Amino acid sequence: MDNAYTTEEMTGEEEEQHQNKIVNIRTRCMTSMLLCLDRQQRIIFILGSIFNIKSNVAAKLLDITAENFRQQLSRAKADLFQFMDNKCGLINPNNPCRCSKKTKGFMKEGLIDEQAIQFKTELVTQINQIAPEKNNELDNLIEGKYLSFFKQQVYEDKDVTESLVSNMLFDKDIKQLFKLN
Q1: 109 shares a domain with 46
Q2: Are 103 and 114 in contact (CB under 8 A)?
Q3: How far apart (Å, rounded) are the C-alpha atoms in residues 160 and 53?
Q4: Phi/psi of residue 11, nearest 5 degrees
Q5: Which residues is 154 bridged to in the sheet?
């Protein structure tokens, strides 16, 4: 699949018309790239690079040392980034792979299921309308949670990182805000 559809060009108008399909192909491609990592590398990459969880907290979650976590994260990044440097046109313009080219080729071959697009336009519009308000609510909610930690402190030397992450991940207000119940 590396060189498949590398000559299929879309006009600017076609790219605009098929933007949802292009984003869908890009999302699936990024997901597939993560699947090139083994399970442990994927978990470490997601925790460390996507969720930005500190190494000491992530290490506790995975029952490894913080140093081991950082080393494994470094290796996972190197593996993934090397693959992207050699394949992905978004990263290296000299690479022939482009999301729009793949999308046009997939459409031409009938490989895109119009009904299976992950995020329909109506949903994306709804998310774009709701997201700023929810983001502000989350900021205020989290700020309040952080401040409550300071108010509860007896100002002794102790690490609250694990408690903070646990409280944020499983907090009933955050679950309710994102309807995770």
Answers
A1: yes
A2: no
A3: 14
A4: -75, 165
A5: none
Please state the pTM of the whole predicted model: 0.54
Task: Identify whether the C-beta of residue 106 lies closer than 8 Å to the C-beta of residue 71.
Answer: no
Please report where in the chains the tokens 């190494």 appear, as a residue.
Answer: 55
pLDDT in tens, 61-71: 899 999 999 99
Q: Is 7 a member of any domain?
A: no
CA dihedral 136, 141, 142, 144 (to 10 degrees): 120
The last residue of one of the domains, among 87, 117, 147, is: 117
pLDDT tens-place string over residues 48-101: 988 888 899 899 889 999 999 999 999 999 998 888 888 888 788 888 787 777
Contact 104, 8 (CB under 8 A): yes
Q: What residues are paired with 97 via a beta bridge?
A: 88
The one-letter amino acid at 42: R
- Take residue 82 and report the two structure tokens written for it: 């090397």
Angle, CA of 138, 139 and 141, to the nearest 5° = 60
Mark whether 95 and 25 lie in a shared domain: yes
**Residues recorded for the chain:** 181
Rounded to whole angstroms, the Cα distance separating 134 from 27 reads 23
The model's pLDDT over 102-147, given as tens digits with 9 standing for 90+, comes to 777 777 777 666 666 554 566 567 767 877 787 777 667 766 766 6
Report the SS3 class of residue 88.
strand
